[in-house]
Amino acid sequence: MAGQATAQRGGKGTDKSAKSGRSGPRPARGRRFRLPRRRGLLVLGVAAVLLGAGVIWLLYGSTWLRVEHVKTTGTRVLTTDEVETVAAVPIGSPLISVDTDAIGERLRQKLPRIDSVDVVRSWPHGIGLKVTERKPVLAMKNGAKFDEVDAKGVRFATVAQPVKGIPQLELTVSQSPSLRRFGADRLVLEAVRITGELPSSVAKETRSVKISSYDSVTLELTGGRTVRWGSDEEGELKGRTLGALMKARPKSVRFDVSAPTAPAVSGS
Asked: Are 201 and 243 spatial neighbours (Cβ–Cβ below 8 Å)?
């Protein structure tokens, strides 16, 4: 009886194994799927190489993405012809191969009036030149002409006549110790800073800025009026003080704001 029970239990176990499919050798799953997977990777690799080669040919070898025109914007005094001649964009070259940095550097070097320029690719066939020109804030006498000076103290152009309303800068510091200590460029920058600190009501009446030393700056206004400014220290306070004095004493011709907390006026 016990043997029969054991046999029956063994038979049931065998039946379960047969039903679950666990008996006998397992299928070689690795061999069944490994070869197609390798083929798929190979196909993907070949496709990637072909795609890359196609992109390179499209960018460099085809005639579809080549430079056909140049567009210049932002010019005020310069002409587009001047800018584009100096830019020397290689018409007909692959657009991707154009050295935009070199073009920008060439424009800034050969055309000092340009403060900044963005050279951009305009797909599929163009190059854009976005120019920002320097704006003069002072004019310096240079023989029979004038050098224009921008807000950074850069002398960037020589013109026959300065822009209307721009003050003239007169440096008379050839024998001054200030010139040895600070240099002419530093004094020009100080003059630029002073004019930038003037209230608009005063700036539009300023005709010239005279510097004989670092701490001796004089402004000449319309109507023969003069302002002793001193150095560029406390420039904003001096500007506000001068504006208030000119309103309070409109007929005065001499103003002294070199010590802005103790200003003085004289003449009428």
From this structure: yes
Burial status of residue 27 (CB atoms within 10 A of its CB: 0-12, 13-18, 19 or more): exposed
DSSP-based three-state secondary structure for 124 = coil
pTM of the model: 0.73
pLDDT of residue 10: 45
For residue 200, the model assigns a pLDDT of 93
250 touches 261 (CB < 8 A): no
End-to-end CA distance of the chain: give it in Å, rounded. Answer: 142
**β-pair partners for 142:** 145
d(CA 252, CA 247): 10
Residue 132 CA to residue 14 CA, distance in Å, equals: 90
On the CB side of 136, how many CA atoms lie within 13 Å of its CA?
25
Tokens of 253: 């011709």
pLDDT of residue 91: 95
pLDDT at residue 81 above 60?
yes
DSSP 92: T
CA 168 to centroid of chain Cα atoms: 29
Query: What kind and span of H or E run contains 106?
Result: helix 100-110
Q: Which long-range contacts (CB under 8 A, 24 or more apart) does 184-191 make?
A: 185/153, 187/211, 187/214, 188/138, 188/140, 188/149, 188/153, 188/155, 189/152, 189/153, 190/214, 190/217, 190/231, 190/232, 191/138, 191/217
**Phi, psi dihedrals of residue 108, rounded to the nearest 5°:** -70, -35
Mean pLDDT value across residues 239-265: 95
Instruction: Report the 10 Å Cβ neighbour count for 70.
Output: 19
Residue 175 — pLDDT band, cuts 50, 70, 90?
A: low
